[in-house]
Write the structure tokens for this entry.
Amino acid sequence: MPFNIDTIIAFDHSLAQTIASARTPEVIQLFIWITELGISSVFIPVCIVVVIMFCIAKRKWLILPLATSVIGSLIVTMTAKFIYQRPRPLDGILIEQSYSFPSGHATIAVSLYGFLVYLLTRNALTRSAQFSWMLIGLLVIFAIGFSRIVLGVHYLSDVLAGYLVGGIWLTVGIYISEIFISKGKVIFNIPLPAKNIAYIYGLCTLTVLSYGLFALLYTPPLAQLR
């Protein structure tokens, strides 16, 4: 059978129906917590915290590549949604107002969290640490994208397209970062004052705890309860 748009759509619907049949309340709640990593109420504060940490760590030059990766990918995603205007799946758990293609959550998973993983990997001192950060990053990115399919608000092709858009802009952000690094604008593994390190760890801890509290208290608009 030729691989065309009809084949993709048919597979999208088949996979969506298969996953929908396997949903349980516990699975739904778990993936709601995961998918919340990609909503604006979470990723915008994360961006702000990261910018503050860049300033504390004296790496302000990383703000531009981060902004390029995130803002560029979001602009392309919103433009594509307007152009294609693909309807959402009919059996979604959550109420979503925007169009389906491509997935904004998948885009932000790669462009934002992928950029953070790049920095952590770039700053790691050992290969094992680099591998660990890369593995964690891939799991987070996959989990966010998969959560959109499990919750029935996106098709597989939406998520893959979001990954592609995010990946392109992540590459641009990394390229800009490497230029700054090569010119000495950004230097990794430089010693920081103890108070700066304490501020950074404190911000990381506060951010994680805040997200945990938000995830427990926030109730997204549900289309149906199963």
Notes: Helices lie at 5-20, 25-35, 40-56, 63-84, 104-123, 127-150, 156-182, 194-217. Residues 41-87+97-147+157-215 form one domain. The chain has a mean pLDDT of 89. The two ends are 36 Å apart (CA to CA).
